[in-house]
Specification:
Elements: H1 3-10, H2 14-28, E1 33-35, E2 40-42, H3 44-67, E3 74-81, H4 86-99, E4 103-110, H5 112-120, E5 126-131, E6 139-144, E7 146-150, E8 162-167, H6 172-183, E9 188-194, H7 197-205, E10 211-214, E11 223-224, E12 237-243, H8 249-262, H9 266-269
Parallel strand pairs: 3-4, 3-5, 8-9
Antiparallel strand pairs: 1-2, 5-12, 6-12, 7-10, 7-11
Helix pairs in contact: 1-2, 4-8
Length: 272
């Protein structure tokens, strides 16, 4: 994480974050941060203040939970891709529902490109999208590697075109995979196309062909096969949270909670 990431959490610029820290140091009369060539660390006084800050935030959340359930109302429209970490998503949504019972969330889970298009068209207030590294839209939640996967029982004959199990042609991952195969001179055929994750997983489990997945999502029912089959290395990707400037308060609060989950330790890990 970084000052840039911190700025994204609180919707300020990086220079503004630096100014806030400077003012805080002036208020307490102590140096709170040591800036190295590439790393920012807390001083002893900074560690002490961090402990108090965490206690203040914990008390704020506790008070909000007891008194603030009705402070938000209305509707928030949120979208996320099917391959995003479901355990994290369910945790955040459950916390939001407990804290803000008067809010109606309209949640869309779908293919990454479809979620991105819905957000761009104004159909979503906030969305998690997957993008290529280097894109600057939104707040970075994390990243992962794309890998070639197949069923443990899958076998490919040397003279056989690579059978693929992929999402529909609108999927960026499908385009990236087939473009790399073409550039590498590797013949391929589309063994199965699915518009949803259930159908895709069924095709992979049946041994119909290979697919592309995020490395952190590969379970025991799959094997990574890129190296053994001599397939090209796939590029990594990032998850980012994007917010509409017109997002209502309910959607902005959900966005803040998502950022909070992914940024709990940004101070300790910060680099300049």
């Amino acid at each position: 994480a970084s000052f840039t990431k911190a700025a994204g959490i609180v919707n300020l610029t990086q220079p503004a974050i630096s100014l806030h820290i400077k003012r805080l140091e002036e208020q307490v009369g102590r140096k709170l941060i040591e800036r190295g060539a590439r790393k920012v660390t807390l001083t002893h006084e900074g560690e002490i203040l961090l402990g108090y800050a965490r206690r203040i935030l914990a008390l704020h959340r506790e008070a909000e939970g007891q008194l603030g359930n009705a402070e938000l109302s209305g509707t928030g429209r949120f979208g996320a891709p099917e391959d995003f970490d479901a355990s994290v998503l369910s945790l955040v949504l459950a916390q939001f529902r407990r804290r803000h019972t008067a809010v109606l969330l309209e949640i869309t889970i779908g293919l990454g490109p479809d979620v991105r298009r819905a957000f761009d068209a104004g159909g979503l207030d906030i969305a998690i999208i997957n993008v290529e590294p280097g894109e600057r839209d939104g707040f970075k939640l994390g990243g992962d590697d794309r890998v070639w996967v197949a069923s443990p029982d899958f076998e490919r004959r040397p003279d056989e075109a690579v059978p693929l199990v992929m999402y529909t042609p609108t999927c960026d991952w499908r385009r990236i995979a087939t473009d790399l195969l073409d550039q590498s001179g590797i013949a391929w055929t589309m063994a199965m196309t699915s518009s949803g994750v259930t159908g895709l997983n069924a095709g992979i489990d049946a041994g119909l062909g290979i697919s592309v997945a995020a490395s952190k999502s590969v379970g025991k029912n799959l094997q990574i096969v890129g190296k053994q089959l001599g397939l090209p290395v796939l590029p990594p990707f990032e998850y980012r949270l994007v917010e509409s400037p017109a997002a209502p308060a309910a959607a902005r609060r959900l966005a803040f909670m998502i950022k909070e989950v992914f940024s709990q330790d940004f101070v300790e890990e910060a680099t300049d």
